[in-house]
Design brief:
Strand content: 5-15%
Shape: elongated
Radius of gyration: 30 Å
Number of strands: 16
Number of domains: 4
CATH superfamily of the largest domain: P-loop containing nucleotide triphosphate hydrolases
CATH topology of the largest domain: Rossmann fold
Distance between the termini: 68 Å
Helix content: 40-55%
Strand order of the largest sheet: 2-1-3-4-5
CATH class of the largest domain: Alpha Beta
Number of helices: 20
Largest sheet: 5 strands, parallel
């Protein structure tokens, strides 16, 4: 049984079709003009719509366009007594299911067409339902771990994904905040649309503004053509603003306006462009402290933190280290074509013992390193394949540092050590300088100074 809407200014035909489809067990409503049909389409949910093309007030083509504008997914069948090729092409291009000509066999032909349309639509809906379920499973599988915090995060992802509320994901660098954001997107109704991520700390303010909002030709020096911004490119989908705590107060005002007005204005433009974007933000900073100190707008904070999700550091969920390590082992062994299936006990014990200040990103990089240097002949990753800082193999400073009789260049040695720390932090942070600076407990400005000093 399906709910049908039949639209035709010929009332006798409406009655004939109503009787025919009621006999087949369907619920049928009929209207005899386009305006009445618009009200029905706007206020009711139908499984299928049948409409005449030529009517005094609105045509069937216009009703088809209106149904699609209201995101009504029901199959739309158009009927006409005066068929033309151009009208048929227009109807099909606009998404009509079928274009049926009024003949003596109209009732029989429509009955077959309706049965076929309802069957195909039901199959499509079932496929979409199964795909949504697979995507939810896929998203959950990407977040590896069995600890209570991870289970809570997965439950929150499943709960908030169907909504369009803004989400603020907090946690230290390298904990997997973007992975949580992607899981929310993949489990949402926006999964077919873009997921676009941008690191707010990686751009100067002026460049960040042009990246987000786009610009028109000639709006500034170097703007040689019109360019759509990231926000507009994410229309219908999800925009992930990583490290939103790095944005300036001025940028926060502009982003707040986007959230409130649901529109953007490109640099150099005079008109707004409507956008439908879900915002997910992340930060490794304490935004409430930044609000108190005047470095983050209070109104913007409450607008982006409608749904807060905190991802704890790896050291606070040690039970997740082993499953994560095995996940990365299988991932990189497959990528590198190596027959590695396990860790030797001493290696796994060292991995689980390490505190992982760089969190999941550091663990991933360490496993990638270990897989890369393993020969794979024993099908296991050995303790010696990991850096000494993780395994504890390296001796103490007193045992390793030797001063030769001729002495050492102290400044050169210290410089070399500084460079190695910078490179190690960059590796643990996946190449993101602001996050590497956080790992070394220094400001981004200081990190940039040392990086320039050592040509990194």
């Amino acid at each position: 049984m399906a709910r049908l809407l039949i639209i035709d200014d010929e009332k006798s035909l409406c009655q004939v079709l109503e009787i025919a489809f009621r006999k087949k067990g369907h619920l049928v409503e009929t209207v005899s003009n386009g305006q009445a049909a618009k009200k029905k389409i706007e206020s009711q949910v139908y499984d299928l719509i049948i409409s005449d093309i030529r009517m005094p007030d609105l045509s069937g083509i216009e009703l088809l366009e209106y149904a699609r504008e209201t995101r009504n997914p029901a199959p739309f069948i158009l009927i006409t007594a005066v068929p033309t090729v151009s009208t048929a092409i227009t109807a099909l291009n606009l998404g009509a299911y079928r274009y049926v000509v009024k003949t003596e066999a109209l009732v029989e032909e429509l009955a077959l067409t309706v049965d076929r349309a309802l069957e195909e639509f039901a199959l499509r809906e079932e496929n979409l339902r199964l795909r949504r379920e697979l995507l939810r499973v896929f998203a959950a599988q990407n977040i590896v771990g069995h600890s209570r915090p991870i289970e809570s995060i997965l439950e929150m992802v499943r709960t908030v994904a169907p909504t369009s509320s803004t989400v603020l994901i907090t946690g230290e660098s390298g904990t997997g905040k973007e992975l949580v954001a992607r899981a929310i997107h993949e489990a949402s109704l926006r999964r077919e649309k873009p997921f676009i991520s941008i690191n707010c700390g990686a751009f100067p303010e002026t460049l960040l503004e042009s990246e987000l909002f786009g610009y028109l030709k000639g709006s500034f020096t170097g703007a040689e053509s019109n360019r759509k911004g990231i926000i507009e490119s994410a229309n219908g989908g999800t925009l992930f603003l990583d490290e939103i705590g790095e944005t300036s107060l001025g940028m926060q005002v502009k982003l707040l306006r986007v959230l409130q007005e649901r529109s953007v204005r490109p640099l150099g433009g005079s008109t707004d462009v409507s956008v439908d974007v879900r915002l997910i933000a992340s930060t490794n900073r304490d935004l409430m402290k930044m609000v108190a100190s005047g470095h983050f707008r209070e109104d913007f904070y409450y607008r982006v933190s409608v749904i807060p999700i905190h991802v704890p550091p790896l050291r606070e969920r040690p039970s997740d280290i082993e499953p994560l390590a095995r996940h990365f082992l299988h991932k990189f062994a497959l990528q590198m074509g190596k027959h590695l299936s396990d860790f030797e006990p001493e290696a796994l014990a060292a991995v689980c013992r390490w505190t992982w200040p760089g969190n999941v990103r550091e663990l991933e990089n360490a496993i990638e390193h270990a897989v890369a240097v393993s020969d794979g002949r024993d099908q296991i990753v050995k303790l010696a394949s990991f850096p000494g800082s993780i395994t504890g193999i390296s001796a103490t400073t007193q045992d390793t540092v030797k001063i030769p009789p001729e002495g050492v260049d102290f400044e050169a040695q210290v410089s070399q050590l500084e460079k190695e720390y910078l490179e190690a932090a960059l590796s643990a942070a996946g190449g993101v300088r602001s996050q590497a600076a956080d790992l070394l407990k220094m400001s981004y400005r200081s990190f940039r100074h040392y990086a320039k000093k050592y040509g990194i």
